[in-house]
Amino acid sequence: MIEKGFKSRMKKMLAIRMLGSGMDLEELNPYAYEISFLLIQNIFKRELQENPNRTRDDMIFITEKIISQMNLEADRATIERIVDGVLWYRDPDRQDAFVTDIFNEEKGEKEEYAFRYLTIDRENSHWDQGGATVYMLTEASQEMIFISREILEEFGFDLEQFYTLQLIKTGNLSKAKNSIDILLSRVRVLINREKEYRRYIIRDPQNIFLDSSREEKKSEDEIRIQFEEEQKLFQKMFSWKSRYDSLPDDKKSEAEEMFEKLERARALHDNLASHVMDNIALAMEIRVNYPESFWNISNLSFKEDIWKNHIVKNGLERIEDLEPMLSSLFSPRVEFIYPLEWAWAEQKTKSSAKIKEYKDGILEEDWDFEEVDWDLIVDLWEEIFLDLLKEGSFSILSLNDKDDINRKKWLSQRANIDLFMMFVISEVELSITYDSKDERLELFYLLSQKNPNLKALEGKKIYSKLENTNESFRWNELFISPYTIYIKE
Known about the structure:
The protein has helices spanning about 5-20, 30-50, 55-70, 75-85, 120-125, 140-150, 155-170, 175-205, 205-210, 220-240, 250-290, 300-315, 320-330, 340-345, 375-390, 405-410, 415-425, 440-450, and strands at about 100-105, 110-115, 120, 135, 355-360, 360-365, 395, 430, 460-465, 475, 480, 485-489. The chain is of the alpha+beta class.
C-alpha cells in the first residue's frame, strides 16, 4: 500500500542517492559520494555563518583540502569534475538541473523531478561590481544534511543558532520553531553532560586528566568569549521580534510562541554557562588545593580485604548478613552518592593525614569543606522575596550593587545561582506545602518560617522576563543575562 506523502519522502531519498553519481573520477570513484557530501556540508556551514566565500573557486579549494585530509590525491581536473558534478547535472557547459523520474502516488504514475544541490545566492554575488557567483544550498540539499546528521551532535550549538537566525530572518516560522526545539534539546544535553562530568570528577578527581572527551580543552577566556558570542546571537534573533508585529493575528500568535520558546532556550543557555564555569572552577580548585588526590590511590578492595581476609577467613554469624552486604554492589539503583568532601577524603591516604593532640585524646585533622548552608541561603533570598512582596518583581541586575563581602556570600553557595535559574526557566506557584523535588518551594517554606509576612505570597505565580538593556550581571567568571522574576496575579 502506498501511503500519502510517498513522493515527498522519495524526493529526499533520490537527492541522497544521486549525489556524486555519474562522475568519472578513476581512483577516486569509491570516494565520490563522501567528498561531495563533505563539500555541501562545508558550504552549508559557511552559509550559516554568513561567509560569502562560496564561489566555484572556493569550492575547488575546499574539495582539494577534503581530499588531502582523506589522505587521497587528485589533480586539478579531477577536483573540478567533482565540483561541477555537485553544481550541475552531466555536461557542466549546459548547467542543467539534476533530473530523475519519481512516482506520484496521487496521479498513480511516474513524473519528472528536477532539483539542484546548490543554487545562486543573488544577495551575495554582487555581479554589478564584477563579483563572482556565490552559491548556497537548496532546500533539497538542506533536507539531505538534516536527514544525514545526528540532530544533536554533528553541528555545534552556535551553528544551530545561525540556522535559527536565518529562518527567523526569512519568516519561516514553522521551521524556526522546530530549530528552536533542537536548540532546547541540544542545550539540555550539554547541561546533562556538565552535571555528569561534575559527578565524574567528584567520584574520582583523576578523571580530570583521563576524560578523553575533554582532551582539546579551551582556556577559560576562550569559553567565556564563546558564551558571550552565543548570547549576542540570541540578541540578534530577538531583534527581529518587532518586525513580526504587522503580521496577521494567526501568524502573530505563532511568532509569539516561537519567541517564548527562544526565551526558554536563552535561559537554559545561561544555566549551561553557569555549569561549565563552575566545573572549570572545581577542576582548578582540585588541582591547586588537592594535588595528592591525583596520585594517592586507596589500597582497600572488597575482594581482598573484606571477602578473603574477613568473610572467608572468619565466616559470618548469620547468613542473612550476606544479603545487605552484597546488595549494594549489585543493585541497579545507587541509593547514596558520596558528598564532595568524602570523595576527596577517600583519595587521601591515612599516612598523609595530619594529627593534632588535644587534652581529651587524639583527633585526626579533616579537610574543611563548606556544605550547603540553607540558613545563609534563606538570609540572602529574604531580600529578594521581600521585593517580590512589596514591588512585585526583582531584577538580578540589582545584585551588581553588592559589596565584595556579600558577593562572596552569594558565590559561596552554588544553590543560589541554581535557584535563580530555576525561577527563570519555568514558572512556579508558591506553596508552603512543598514537593521536596522542587527546591524553589523548599526555599519559600523556609523563608515563610523565618519571616511570616512572606506567607502572603502563597498561591502567587512567579514568572520571568528578559530586560531590554545592554547591562548584564557579571561577577568574575559568572555571567547571567539581565532577567527579572516577577509576580503575576
